[in-house]
């Protein structure tokens, strides 16, 4: 149980999120709910850490009783130089989103891959082709996951072709010109861009409504809003859709297991976060 310091209950251990900014993250809601449900006397916090302050934050991580960290933009690559090691998966992705301890060593993992895979594996559907829209860090996690599934025909497209070519070279996949992306549709379309995310681009989409292939699956890693324009138009075209909240829940579940050795029900977590989004 937490130590009782007068009227204040002091948590025994701390987990948290580092990024810049972090104010809209649902990580604290998810993990504090899971910690309470597991009856663990821990707390999960969010720290807004500017790029110039990352080194000082990492010094603090080694001094304080911090059991683990979630890492988000812009630190997923830069944080790697402060670690004692990273997993083979994180090395392939080229970024980490999770820090955890193994004895006295602070290690990096990428649970975005676990999060991305979970809803696809739950569908129990085999895909013969996939196209990744976008060429940022999220695209690297998606490509790693798609190759794990053994999909034989994987392509990547991006408005800046050189970025797509760089990723294609790292993963051994094909590049499609952005302007020609609808001419070679795939069974699985994955949006890893920020198009459709709440804010200035909420009504944007990376795929024309009239170009969705029959019976394709559209996967959007954006979870706010839950039903992006990309997914709405895909559903209207008769496609199956996968929203980004599933990925968020399952990457968080993988983090929670690394930190605590325990689990939580993904369906209840999704319901909790849906309420957060609607609120």
What distance separates the N and C termini? 31 Å
Tally of helical runs: 9
Might you state the CATH topology name of the largest domain? Rossmann fold
Number of strands: 14
CATH superfamily (homologous) name of the largest domain: NAD(P)-binding Rossmann-like Domain
User: Into how many domains do the coordinates divide?
Assistant: 2
How would a textbook summarize the main sheet? 6 strands, mixed
Poorly predicted sequence stretches spanning 5 or more consecutive residues: none
Account of the protein in words:
- This protein is α/β, with parallel strands linked by helices.
- It folds into 2 domains: 108 residues, 3-Layer(aba) Sandwich (Rossmann fold); 132 residues, 3-Layer(aba) Sandwich (Rossmann fold), CATH 3.40.50.720.
- Helices cover 36% and strands 22% of the residues.
- It contains 9 helices and 14 strands.
- Strands 4-3-5-7-8-6 form a 6-stranded mixed sheet, with helices on both faces. A 6-stranded parallel sheet has the order 11-10-9-12-13-14, with helices on both faces. Strands 1-2 form a two-stranded antiparallel ribbon.
- Helix 4 packs across helix 5.
- The longest helix has 17 residues.
- The protein starts with a strand and ends with a helix.
- The model has no long low-confidence stretch (mean pLDDT 93).
- It catalyses: shikimate + NADP(+) = 3-dehydroshikimate + NADPH + H(+).
- Keywords: Amino-acid biosynthesis, Aromatic amino acid biosynthesis, NADP, Oxidoreductase.
- Homodimer.
């Amino acid at each position: 149980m937490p130590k009782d310091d007068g009227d204040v209950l002091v948590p025994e251990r701390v987990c948290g999120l580092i990024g810049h900014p972090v104010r809209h993250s649902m990580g604290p809601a998810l993990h504090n709910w899971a910690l309470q449900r597991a009856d663990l006397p821990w707390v999960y916090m969010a720290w807004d850490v500017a790029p110039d302050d990352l080194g000082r934050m990492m010094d603090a991580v080694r001094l304080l009783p911090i059991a683990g960290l979630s890492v988000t933009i812009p630190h997923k690559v830069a944080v790697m130089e402060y670690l004692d090691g990273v997993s083979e998966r994180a090395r392939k992705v080229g970024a980490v989103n999770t820090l955890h301890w193994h004895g006295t060593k602070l290690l990096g993992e990428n649970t975005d891959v676990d999060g991305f895979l979970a809803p696809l594996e739950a569908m129990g559907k085999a895909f013969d082709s996939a196209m990744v829209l976008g060429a940022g860090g999220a695209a690297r996690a998606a490509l790693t996951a798609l190759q794990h599934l053994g999909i034989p025909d994987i392509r990547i497209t991006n408005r800046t072709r050189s970025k797509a070519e760089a990723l294609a070279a790292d993963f051994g996949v094909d590049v499609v010109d952005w302007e020609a992306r609808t001419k070679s549709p795939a069974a699985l379309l994955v949006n890893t861009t920020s198009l459709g995310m709440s804010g200035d681009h909420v009504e944007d989409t990376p795929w024309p409504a009239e170009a969705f292939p029959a019976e394709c699956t559209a996967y959007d890693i954006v979870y706010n809003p839950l039903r992006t324009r990309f997914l709405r138009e895909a559903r209207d075209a008769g496609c199956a859709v996968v929203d980004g909240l599933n990925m968020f829940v399952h990457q968080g579940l993988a983090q929670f297991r690394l930190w605590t050795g325990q689990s939580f029900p993904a369906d209840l977590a999704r319901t909790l976060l849906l309420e957060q989004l609607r609120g």
